[in-house]
Amino acid sequence: PQQPQQPQQQSGPPLEEAARGRTAAADTQEGSGDRIGAWSVSSVRRLGTTSEEALLLLGPWREQVPLLDMDTITSVHQAIDGLNVGLIRCPQDYCVVYSISNRGFFLLMRDGAYFSPLEEALSAAANVVGPVATEDPEPEEMQGGSPEPLERGVVLELGGGRSCRLTGPLGAGSFGTVWAAEVLSSRRPEAAGDAKDPEEGSWELAVKEIICQSQQDLAVARLEAELLRRLGPEELQGRETCPAARCAFLRQPHIIQEDRIPVLVSSMTETLGTELWRVRLAMTRVPGVPLDRYFEEQRKRGISQASTVCSSGSSGGDASLNSIGSGCSAKARRFLEACHIARELVSQLSPVLGRIASVAYHRDVNSHNIMVDATRLRFGLVDFGLAVDIAKWRGPIGASSWHLVDIGGDCRYWPMSAWLQFECGWQELAKYPTLAAEYRTRLDLHALGLVALQVVATLCPLSGPDEPETGLPEGVTALLVAWRQYWDDATRLWARLLQCFRTGGDQDALKVACATEGAHNTIGHNLAELRAALREALQDFTNGFSESGSDARPLFGALLELLCAG
Question: 519-542 vs 552-562: helix axis angle to the nearest 10?
Fold first, then answer.
């Protein structure tokens, strides 16, 4: 199956029609000749803060200048990026965009283009319109010129008198590297004297560096920064605050206590060369270690001790870990402890996903991007690099809708619908309304359910082939067996996708192979078996398997709601 071609987004109606409030698209006239160069901020001209001002400035040429759609294109940078990669269609060498951040209309032109009547009008009215803005402002930018390469000990200026020092790498991926950083003093050296500022080094940030090799990569990186800004505390919304002010606010105890996702402190973009940029995001650091690393640590410690390391603090369990499973076998106790931890995971992150869903979908919920602070049994979610704007994702077909956005994330946590989308594209998925709705709305919740099951199965694994299962009811054993089958099949497919991605293999051939083998049906069947086993296990606890099963019962009920049926 072939993936559909991306439709080009049409430019909006001429500016005059927008000013009159008409919504119908207007006929656009052909441009001024041969295409001269790329769209660039160097040719941007400010027209005014209202459509009437812009119309007055354009004069008799207003009919020839199209206005880009004000609902979907809201900044100069977004417009230039879309025009250059072909996601926005404009047959002329010029167009107008409204910038929300600059609160005004701007004329965009291709490099080298010259429309003499319009240039004369702009020159004549320059003293009326005011200074020309060449690009949208980047709020909360890291300061300084060309950033030096990131390494331990490097100091980055955050702005507003704030800076941070890198202390070591936190992780790396195809995008680049994430570094831990300590916030340094906000006082000037001459004012600080010899006394150490008590705030210095007292809290940490995470600094993410993203290397962008295309306009599309750059747009994705900027979207990540924008979504983190919008997901920040309510007190920081609706006003431009400098990094120093954000730092001061984010240091308040009640904000730190609720720190389950990163909050953006500052960002910067640097042009490295032709079609090459470096984006850095400084954000609050979510405490803990990745959940998959925690799993590995427990395997090294010995799985029998895995759960008991999380022995202090919980937000919703009915019994502490020290009293769970009193009188049960060791195997049953480990299972109940694992259920307690999994219930905490779901209880803590479900509201977080609900909050995120007011703005975006994360699309990469997995055991690597979930952080766990084992000393307090607290969970958080990081890495919004694949997140999508929810309004555009669920909207009509377009470059940012679910139809055409590249599928992403760890495929071991995909529902059946995501596999069908990967194999055959949105046209095939749209033939099955239930599956299409599942893909549009439930990717994050389904993945959270799978991670919770992974917690149970990892911290209470099946016994060896020669070791009988003791102390667990049949439904629980069936659940662990069903999980092992699902995870084995999903991991096998994941390894193939990962190998193709890392080696630059033929992705179309891989999609055809997965479709031919029926990968989506395999995953769908395994998920159906998991759900059946969950119902059986839930029945075991409903029938009184253990008086200490107060975590297992609500957990299994929640998992039946989270896991997609396919």
Answer: 150
pTM: 0.70
Tally of residues, the chain: 566
Please name which of 331, 312, 314, 339 lies closest in space to residue 454, comparing C-alpha atoms.
339
> What digits encode the pLDDT tens for the residues 375-389?
889 999 999 999 999
pLDDT confidence of residue 18 = 38
Tokens 């606890």 locate to 541
Cα–Cα distances (Å) from 400 to 424, 442, 502, in that order, read: 19, 17, 25
205, exposed or middle or buried, with CB in 10 Å at 0-12, 13-18, 19+? buried
Which position has the token pair 């040429």? 61
CB 347 within 8 A of CB 355: no
Contact between residue 357 and residue 261 where contact means Cβ atoms under 8 Å apart: no
Residue 421 CA to chain centroid, in angstroms? 19
CA distance 505 to 219: 25
| Of 426, 396, 397, 421, nearest in space to 408 by CA | 421
Token reading at 65: 């200048």
Q: How many angstroms separate the CA atoms of 147 and 156, rounded?
A: 8
In the chain, how many H helices and how many E strands?
20, 16
- Specify whether the CB–CB gap between 49 and 103 falls below 8 A: yes
From 39, 43, 58, select the one nearest 122 (Cα to Cα): 58
What contacts 393, CB < 8 A, 6 or more positions away?
360, 361, 400, 401, 402, 405, 440
Of 523, 368, 370, 355, which is closest to residue 435 (Cα–Cα)? 523
pLDDT, tens digit, for every residue of 98-117?
Answer: 876 667 788 888 877 765 55
